[in-house]
Predict the structure.
Amino acid sequence: MLTFQEFSKQIIETGDIDPDYIFIRRTCQEYKWTKKQMFKWILHKLVIYDSYSELEVILKKNTIDKVKYGTERRKSKRFAQDYLNNINRAFIGTDIDEFFTQRGDVVFDKIRSIKGFGSWAAWKFMDLMSCCYGLDIDFDSIDFREAYTFPLKGLLMINNYPEDVKLLKDTNLYNKLIDNTLLMLTGFNDLKSPHNNNKGLRINEVETLLCKYHSYRHNKYKVGQDIEHLKKRAKECTI
């Protein structure tokens, strides 16, 4: 069993922390797509959460009701077109750069006000806009406790506390655990991080590390799994 530090180092350096981000940037470059076209892909990712399926829909090789969905969006598949319409409407006439470079807590809350987009989707949206689209996103003003459950359970687990997120209502304890987690990751900012174009380690990366390590410790994830899944989907898709 890998320690949190060993695990984190491996998935950061290999890109397995989020290989889809690498795939999105590379594919947009290969197709010579504009930032507007990349943004369209990001909106599709928020409702489908499977990179090859999203690409199939965008390229009109398949339809949104027939493609495979990622785990996070599988249960809401029947609402996918409605959710995509909602998020598209919300950004009509919006200056994308200006919107996402506001205070992070403002952006987070505005996204969560769109029907079909809760805390997970809001955080993921901002992460995609940072790692793929390339904007300087403010995550520091967002209370990490408003993120979804599994990273919070991971935070408790690596600090040897029961996985009861209610414990984190104690702000002093929460701050202590965050500080201790960042201490565990000292020096990681110098690692190569291909998923975010070598922007280093930020709180959005810490969130993903905690989430994935929690899954790893519960035998629901292994190092390299997401890279292998992406390769498998490449063989299955119609593109």
Q: What stands out?
A: The two ends are 38 Å apart (CA to CA). Residues 226 and 232 are 10 Å apart (CA to CA). The chain has a mean pLDDT of 97.
